[in-house]
Design goal:
Blueprint lengths: L9 H4 L5 H8 L10 H8 L3 E5 L4 E3 L7 E15 L5 E7 L4 E2 L13 E14 H10 L1 H27 L2 H11 L7 H8 L3 H14 L2 E3 L5 E3 L8
Antiparallel strand pairs: 1-6, 2-6, 3-4, 3-5, 3-6, 7-8
Helix pairs in contact: 2-3, 4-5, 6-7, 7-8
Amino acid sequence: MDPMDQPVPPSRRGAFDTREAVVAALRRIHPFDQVPAELVARVAEQVRWRPCHAGDVLFREGEPVKAVFLLRQGRVKIVAVDDEGREYIMHLLGPGDLFPAVGLFTGGGYPATAEVIQDGVVGTVTREAILDLVRRHGDLAMALLMAQEERIRYLQDRIRSLVWRDLRTRVLEVLVKHMGDQLTHQEIAALVGAARESVSRVISEFKRQGLVTRDPSGRWRVRSRGGEGR
């Protein structure tokens, strides 16, 4: 029997019946879409899948980095909290994301807290297992380093936006980037680094101007240049 078609042990199965199904799911998670299928199959042997629910905390800031997480379904926010208890959203993650972006190679503590905001399915791979594969497979090492670089570039863009762009522009950027998501005003405020009241005023102005709309399910739409919402 092809090892890709062998049954998956119950502890690692999640919603999958065969290793081939696990590999197919991993290929939809970046950066495993960039490495050969046979290497993805080796990673698949190490993944433990489980359901996650809104409100679950996957890890907390400062805790030792013991595993990386693979989001198959659902949404997760990566947040940091300042000394006054204000929450700042560093990332909003969806299906296909791997996290955290730092700590895998250097160890130490998680740089922020990961909280589930929409029910889904998450996989975990221990740091030791990933590092063992990285030592033996250069393709995986390169893919993970490239993914980390992409995340760093994203954070650099976020910093530039906070420093150089006004609140209206920052809010519009978030609405465009997360178009179709069910973001609350508080989540938008945490993404742009502003008070919720200020963000609510900006969004109200956008609505009056017809720039943005929100459907009954709470998903945001932004009017395109052609005048139609997307």
